[in-house]
Amino acid sequence: MWRAGFKWMFLIIGTTIGAGYASGRELWQFFGYESGLAILLFMIFFSICCNVIMRVSFEKQSSHYLPVLRNIVGDRLTKMYDIMIILYLFTTTVVMIAGSGATGQAFNVSYWWGVFFIVAALIVLFIKGINGLLAINQIILPLLLGGLLYILLLFTIDQELLLFSGLNEQRNWTAAFPFTALNILPLIAVLGAIGDKVKSKQEIWIASLGSGLILGVISFIYNNSLIQIADELLLYEIPLFAILKHYPFGMLIFMSVLLWFAIFTTAASGVLGIVSRLKSIWRIPIWLLVLILLLTMVPLTTLGFSTLISYIYPFYGILNLYVLTRLLLYPIWNNLGKGRA
């Protein structure tokens, strides 16, 4: 039970912590000053949403997201959100591929080598199917989370930052809604593909509460660190590098490798969500479907990493607010529906 719960927890975190989150760019886009309450609300909303999605997926014993989506948004809106999920996963995977290119550039490696490397790695991963993704998540994510937390706490101590200063000023609390909403669609896509693999409701509680708590704590410390270097963030495509410049080059290398794996696991989760849906339409091998998909994505990465995040993420954060509302109210209206029946 615990082992399976942690496996799904790492899948959730791997889906959420990608180029945007781990680099700090996504957090700064939504949070920043006066956001302590917003991050606490995000932590609560995120756990509730993961729990609801996994429960529906488990009850439906689904192998792709469509039955889960239909249950959450209703028959009339399913088609629209089905298209939106595919577009969302497609565009955010483009962001991840661009993030790989941007990570390479930080070390004077050609942008296109960074893009080529992640595309090749994704094709190799999907030759092994979903088990390959689950295995790599369980190895890489504890390292990434531990490394990120270590760097952020070290920075907090070295700079003598106060983690809980300014808690009486929380005017940005509404940011919790679009930020949580942004991360909902990929979770529906990915968790909708594992319903037939979940064995018990205890696994669902471990995965949903654990992922919400971990992401909430890291988000709070990370955001607090970024506030201290706000003036420098315009100079960096990846804000994490503005923190890492204070430390030895070896640490920069180590965290950059972990950052790349965060980008990779999120790209893999996005690809999994798309191919698990398309597989029910086109009967071709998964690796070939992945290859075709990635070849259509590569030209779009020329728009640039930070540009893609600046426009795409807020847009989807607003569009997904309806899904977020349905998920948060699901326990209420689902019980009402059972009562009427």
UniProtKB/TrEMBL annotation:
<feature type="transmembrane region" description="Helical">
    <location>
        <begin position="247"/>
        <end position="274"/>
    </location>
</feature>
<feature type="transmembrane region" description="Helical">
    <location>
        <begin position="139"/>
        <end position="157"/>
    </location>
</feature>
<feature type="transmembrane region" description="Helical">
    <location>
        <begin position="311"/>
        <end position="333"/>
    </location>
</feature>
<protein>
    <recommendedName>
        <fullName>Membrane protein YkvI</fullName>
    </recommendedName>
</protein>
<feature type="transmembrane region" description="Helical">
    <location>
        <begin position="79"/>
        <end position="98"/>
    </location>
</feature>
<keyword id="KW-1133">Transmembrane helix</keyword>
<feature type="transmembrane region" description="Helical">
    <location>
        <begin position="177"/>
        <end position="194"/>
    </location>
</feature>
<keyword id="KW-0472">Membrane</keyword>
<feature type="transmembrane region" description="Helical">
    <location>
        <begin position="110"/>
        <end position="127"/>
    </location>
</feature>
<feature type="transmembrane region" description="Helical">
    <location>
        <begin position="286"/>
        <end position="305"/>
    </location>
</feature>
<feature type="transmembrane region" description="Helical">
    <location>
        <begin position="206"/>
        <end position="227"/>
    </location>
</feature>
<keyword id="KW-0812">Transmembrane</keyword>
<feature type="transmembrane region" description="Helical">
    <location>
        <begin position="38"/>
        <end position="58"/>
    </location>
</feature>
<dbReference type="InterPro" id="IPR038728">
    <property type="entry name" value="YkvI-like"/>
</dbReference>
